[in-house]
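Hey L., structure's done. Input below.
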Amino acid sequence: MHDLVIRGGTVVDGTGAPARVADVAIDAGLITKVGNVSAAGTREIDATGLLVTPGWVDIHTHYDGQATWDSYLSPSCWHGVTTVVMGNCGVGFAPARPDRHDWLIGLMESVEDIPGAALAEGIKWDWETFPEYLDSLDRRPFVLDVATQAPHGSIRAYVMGERGARNEAATPADIAEMAKITREALEAGALGFSTSRTQLHRAKDGEPVPGTFAGADEMVGIGRALGQAGHGVFEIASDMTIPEDEFHWMKQFAAASGLPVTFGMLQSPMQPEKWRDLLKLTEEARAEGAQITAQIACRPTGMVLGWQSTVHPFVRKQAYRAIADLPFAERLVRLKDPAVREAIISEDAPPPPGIGAILTHGFATMFRLERDGRLDYEPRAEDSIAAEAKRAGVDPQAIIYDMLMENDGRGYIYLPLLNYSKFNFDHIAEMMNHPATVLSLSDGGAHCGVICDASFPTYMLSYWVRDRERGERLPLEKVVAMQTRDTARLYGMHDRGVLAPGLKADVNVIDFERLQILAPEMIFDLPADGRRLVQRAEGYRATVVSGVVTFENGVATGELPGKLVRGPQAAPALLAAE
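Output:
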């Protein structure tokens, strides 16, 4: 008898090999056979006509706070994710001096749009050091596995106090202490170190995230800690326009340490071809022995604008601000009043500087999210609000207002802010076909009031493999490998991501034809009634973590087999066949 047998499914094993019909046998949390399994299972899942894949490994999430009170880490768990890596972009909650708790919460709230009140109520702070933080996580049961990185912002503030928070230059003593803390974090189980080099990431007081302007001496000095620990990924949130001198130290560190360096890369609306330069630099570095990999996204960084979102086109107008603080039900009554509608639409409010102008007046890059009964993340330029308004001869704000009022005030506008300069996904297809990239940037758990990209794993299969009509689709086998084997290997988790004997039994059973992401919805289930924008999924028949079924037909079974991942994971010796 096997513990679990998944029978007769179309196995896409995560290696990129052709799909094949096979059974999967599981015992003691590990896969013991993929092929014709004659022995029965204590439990069996009939996967006839269904896909059987490894569980998704999402390497760019921000559940650092949520993981301290929530065992499920939704919405990622709703999308077949069985391992998350958090601590990205240089922000997190360890190490944490007792007098810096509020500051760390404010930093996360500002950078990642996670409600501060929810973090303040939910986090219990039974740690100070990073190893103590890992111990705290280790005491919790989870529905999926959780891995961490040591965040530069927290470490810098811990060592340098206000000097670190204000991005003052680090002294050699500061760098040595930060390196020491980083090494302790890695030896305790962190999979890497993360930093932010983008001015889009700012603290609550408007200051760039600690470490944004750190010199090469600080970056390399901390990086040496990874070399001393013998493992770890050096992850960089970038401005997508990394200068060559910055790339130089990245290449030097990666080549000298033999450890991977990875940076976020999206198409910049200001320099839409810059990503090609970055990939060329990456190719050259890899040719010289440096393990540098660009993290990419499968669709734009898309803002979902609604009345309950963090921002929408009317958020600065005095006519709206007069009712903005009302409970939503009361606000909705006022918004339905034709006089209020006219006052809001007709009010002349000049666009704010910078990105705010796009969020309030970027009508040429705003779109209806739901079109012809489906979610459209790759709209055409002629589908924009500006184009629609021009055809109809009306104010684009009137169209937006009425769209937001749909679904009883829960309608949404889609604004692809990054990664969509040419109104198509062709550049994304190029990125995904490049050997120096890895699928990432879902930001699961973050940007709660305006983005819900934790649905990336489901979107990869439903859109890129099955539904895309405007250009190249991707092979199923490639897409599965991209978000299982490839993501797991980058972070040293060699025990998962492939369906093969001896490896961890993290599995998805998927009804491919029914697989889809649902429309965004705003829910208020965080501590202190905090809000978050989420998307659910349909089509996951079962999700298995360490051989235990955690979800059936999208419903949690109540089993919590997930654990903290401490350090890189070696692939176990292959087990004998049954």
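The mean pLDDT is 94. The CA atoms of residues 489 and 497 lie 8 Å apart.

-- N.
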